[in-house]
Amino acid sequence: MQELVVLIPCYNEAATIGKVVADFRSALPEAVIYVYDNNSTDDTAKIATEAGAIVRREYRQGKGNVIRAMFRDIDAKCYIMVDGDDTYPAEDAAKMAKEVLENGADMVIGDRLSSTYFQENKRAFHGAGNIVVRKSINTLWRPKEKIVDVMTGYRAFSPLFVKSFPVLSKGFEIETEMTIHALDHNLLVRSLPVGYRDRPEGSESKLNTFSDGIKVLLTIFNLYRNYKPLQFFGIIALILAVISLIMFVPVLGEFISTGFVERFPTLIVSTMLGVMAMLSFVCGLVLDTHAQNARKDYEVKLNIIQMLLK
Question: pTM higher than 0.70, yes or no?
């Protein structure tokens, strides 16, 4: 098992990958640097090899697919993941690795938003999108330490996290999935402020603000439903029950005063909504039991992985 590795997912980063590899070789001379080329049509792979990185290829398109391959292929005591676009300074990597190797962190988040992100970022709506995603996760999962930067591509991981993380996302929503997985399974998460600089001239972002932003929000929605089904379906049940009650009370008042029910359609709809509310709540209870059992199984698997890693 290697002590420290740097993992760089890349797609058409010929303009920056040489500098990124050189910077991390200088900042972390003991680290082995892997560049995973995701079907680049430029000289990304050639330049990375010449700079001293080990280049591997992942033919399934998407950042999530690349990270899945990285985590399966590489065995190490500490993993540093960074984008190949030269937006993250290599000098912050050592303190992130220290949190994993010495302080037992399972995931270290390189927090751009507390440093220079809002001054350096030139892409409209990216800052606002980061804030929406961050507030959504902190509201739904309520971590003891608030997560400041969910979308950062600069992270450090323990082998326990890497070998137990089920990668489901295929694209840029992978960072959101990582964060929610760590919070939901009570893994040790640390946030460290890191520097950020905008892409240099000639380097283009592959992130689509709106389509990828929608994917991230859908990921949060789906993971909230899967990880916290009682809360999710309980909210739906409460909304349906309130609407049902609002519709039923006037009908009940008329019946008490006149002895007749004149608005049968309203009564039928309110009854149906009440039944739907009860079904939603029961579904939440059943799925919550399943989710709790899945957490128990995950804890057992963590113990097995821990023994295998020693």
Answer: yes
